[in-house]
Design a protein that fits this description.
heterotetramer, A: alpha/beta, Glutaconate Coenzyme A-transferase, 3-stranded mixed β-sheet, C: alpha/beta, 9-stranded mixed β-sheet, 3-stranded antiparallel β-sheet, 6 helices, 20% helix
Amino acid sequence: MSRQQILERAVKEIQDGMCVNLGIGMPTLIANMIPGDLNVMLQSENGLLGIGPYPNKDEVDPDLINAGKETVTAKAGASFFDSAESFAMIRGGHIDLAILGGMEVSEKGDLANWMIPGKMVKGMGGAMDLVQGAKRIVVIMDHVNKHGESKVKKSCTLPLTGKNVIHCLITDLAVFQFSESGMELIELQNGVTIEQVKSNTEADFTVSSSLEIKG
Amino acid sequence: MSRQQILERAVKEIQDGMCVNLGIGMPTLIANMIPGDLNVMLQSENGLLGIGPYPNKDEVDPDLINAGKETVTAKAGASFFDSAESFAMIRGGHIDLAILGGMEVSEKGDLANWMIPGKMVKGMGGAMDLVQGAKRIVVIMDHVNKHGESKVKKSCTLPLTGKNVIHCLITDLAVFQFSESGMELIELQNGVTIEQVKSNTEADFTVSSSLEIKG
Amino acid sequence: MGKLLSSLDSAIQQIEDGATIVVGGFGLSGIPENLIHALRDKGVKDLTVISNNCGVDDAGLGLLLENRQIKKMIASYVGENKLFEQQFLNGELEVELVPQGTLAERLRAGGAGIPAFYTATGVGTEVAEGKEHKEFDGRTYIMEKGLVGDFAFIKAWKSDPFGNLIYRKTARNFNPVVATAGKITIAEVEELVNIGELDPDEIHTPGVYIQKIFVGNHYQKRIEKLTTTNA
Amino acid sequence: MGKLLSSLDSAIQQIEDGATIVVGGFGLSGIPENLIHALRDKGVKDLTVISNNCGVDDAGLGLLLENRQIKKMIASYVGENKLFEQQFLNGELEVELVPQGTLAERLRAGGAGIPAFYTATGVGTEVAEGKEHKEFDGRTYIMEKGLVGDFAFIKAWKSDPFGNLIYRKTARNFNPVVATAGKITIAEVEELVNIGELDPDEIHTPGVYIQKIFVGNHYQKRIEKLTTTNA
């Protein structure tokens, strides 16, 4: 339910004509929610621009997977390329938007989403490239962890994926934008109050004037 | 006649299975002299591996030229690629041999072949990349200029294409090889004496022991 | 998807005096003829042009030289062009000569978000003067910087409406790297095909790099050096 | 042209303990299955393996882990592999984690004769520790080095006898860059075609990069995560 709110808000970040990279996990679910009248090309960093829906059982092709290693299809207008080209595209600023999951976000726009010390080291995959390369970085995550602790922090405690890279954070409580002047609360999720956001957020943030009026 | 001797000696540098880049001008003439039983792929730095013969009049294609901007054909097994890939191939040491023209060569294996100060600046094209990248660099040129002055010098007076890059020099008088220990005369062209080579060469060189015996 | 242009006017209209334009092609092969003509007609001045060559006196980028629109040229070989020499000696034209492989790699780097890289090309020559030198495994290299233009002009054979491109034979040359190195990349093509018509395995330039597409209706494709077996 | 192998024995025989091997593929897609099996059977030890992933416990490079042949792994993501975790925690396995784009570019650079380049990827993270930092146009970048292996193992769809290769769909992935980054590159393919049969415009890897070709007769092509519309 809260996940659904996050995804519904995240899909609004996607505009007609964009090339978008959706991170592994929750962000991948956004693919199915993109309105059919938008012409959007989804990029998969293993070498596909133009991800289509999951295949029917008889279309499954081991030579056609996404970055999460799931079997997918390619839509009309898709192209395949190698990994160096794929990251040239990402690092060179040709991808309009990346929507990524997060473990922790800091008020400075730092992101930690690849490693928990003491746990299995899985590797960063393409996340560090995406946060530095895509034109706009949107992070989606739950606002607090299962112990009720804020994941929106003054400083990240987990190893960073990127420093000062996030443009927008969407949680189950609120939406924030990041700029030179810091972190700003710009929207509340349905039924959430500013007080609730404040009490669940370790980070310092300002509240958008347009939001105060609505609230 | 002297040119023919140079070319005939140069073609012996080409072995079966090699990928070879022939420089613009005199080196290009070597293409037609490669024995038919050798399987050789000629590279053109504008994006072709597998240059074929010049086209018949009705085969001429403005989309198919060599690095000298001449219309050519592509032989069976040829591939086309872009300029970055072409020089990745060259710079990365994947081309076995480059045979290039020279204006001056020094005893240290320096090559000058791209510019005469005071004359029109044409540009170095791909020559500086080739001398640093190809596995073996063979230079072919006349031993002396039209004023009878040696082009094989202690130091080049013209702007360099590359420093300490030549493996072999073939002139109308002789063949030299270059190594850590300097420049060594290893062959004489037909009817040429060591004395003739010495009197026409400004550079210091040693004479190969195998040559002394023959001479 | 709105990338398709019915005329080049609006696209060229955006280009202002002093712009940096990266142009594909090798010699006169695979050059964006229509874009060069449109730029000549628009008459915009003080351009910095980055391209392997500068055309010949009456074709290709030579037309912009003739019209005195180029302030600075970054190229690897300009030996086919007498106007070039004249303007260079006059001091009208600034020139930066770059080894061809370094030029290709600088454009690829610019397009790929790599601000600089090291290469052995040019070490010990004029090209290395003033550049940072560094040793790796006992060999000396120089640092070269990525290049990006305000606009990139390229020529392809086929495009779909998303801008997925296929080039033909050696007319590919610099075009795919130039495509990546423009803030706004305009591709002119010989043929437009429907979306889905190009095999995704055979696309040379994915459409993500292309902002505008123009289908040219006449290609001169002039040959610089006609060489035939019977000639 | 002598590149074609009738068995992998002679090619694998050259590989000695302690060799560095670069391996193509992404997850289990496009991996050189036959080469990995042959290497497992040969049993050579103390290998440094450079590959985006390390297979799964009972397939792909996981087979070499199981056989304790890998001393050091350079990869971007190894999360699918429990054996990996175990050997890493034991101290049996050395690991260098590299961001995926940096890994791809380090291999491309190695193959292209570029000893090092700058990237913003990893700046401000563990990845940047101990690396040279440099500013370009006000942004900070780190220097990353090119990678080349003693051997490169890749998998393609079709090859001709010269080693011109075509890959299929996303099984292309790291294979074309890995192909360039081996002192000796061995390509295993599904299908061998005659010389001249591949359209020169459609070749992904020119044969100059390939030293040996092997036509595999069985490809498992295991799927890691089967996802379907009706599942």
